[in-house]
Amino acid sequence: MINDSQIPIIQKEYFDEQTNLHELLDSIIKELNQLIDYNRYNIEIDIHGRVKSQDSLSRKYEELLFEINTIKQIDDLIGIRIVCLLLSDVEKLLKTIKNYYTDFKKHYNPAEKGLKDRFNYNSNHIIIEKNRFRIEIQIRTLSQHTWAQVSRKFNYKNEIDVPDEIKRPLFRASAHLESADLDLGKFVEDREKHLIHLSEQNINEILDSSLNFDTLRKTLAIKIPAKYKSDSDDLLYFSLLRELRQRGINTVRELVSLIDSELNDAEMMSQKISSEILIRIKKGENTGFDEDKIRNGVRFSYIGLMREMYDSYFKKKADSS
Known about the structure:
- By secondary structure, this protein is α+β, with helices and mostly antiparallel strands.
- 56% of the residues lie in helices and 12% in strands.
- The protein is built from twelve helices and five strands.
- The protein is elongated and about 95 Å long.
- The relative contact order is 0.07.
């Protein structure tokens, strides 16, 4: 609620503060991105922010349950939305934001508070204050974001808004999305346990394991010298795994046998090509290669070296048959 006589005053304040509001919005988004990058949280969508529009502000006057005298009393004058991949990331990010912003005012979840009904989506809302303005930061998972967008798309803000004949599929979708968050959380938890167990095993203990993304990475890290490791390797493990399986390499034992047979020759090939490239570099040619690696005899990454090895390995097998 707002006194009609206050509306022109608040509207003028709103227009006068536009530059400050947008600068503040950009500043907070920058801070949040830095926090997220530093803590390596899984954020799947770019942070979205907005300053409340004039039309939205006008509608806000009718929704307010208390009288205001300034736009600085509006909790969501500036709104920011962060979409995380996992519930665990939401919880971690909530804690980080509360610790970072000492001007933290309040935190609530509309669904948990029962502000509307079971139709309401889960989303954590944090109100902070900066430069005397209030900012609402919404943090939700990708599944929660999907539900919120569906609700907004079809203008169903409450259960009572939904026609009875279409409620069942809609609520079923809601349940599936909520289950997806829980199942993904369980998957990540189980995978972390699996990786810890895998890290504690030596190569002989996993020889009979099937070749998958995790056992492939571990085997290469153990069997191939670290100097060949490249930042781009992680993006290529899946394609290498597929190529190995297509050639009948399905277990760690088979991969180890291939590496033991071919690694020495592959390293010699890497050294030979590196020497040739180094000659070109000394002549002033821009080869595009990392000179330090080339001087160290590293022409191939893990993935490149593996491809060199299996090409040679299967050529020898074909020649001998």
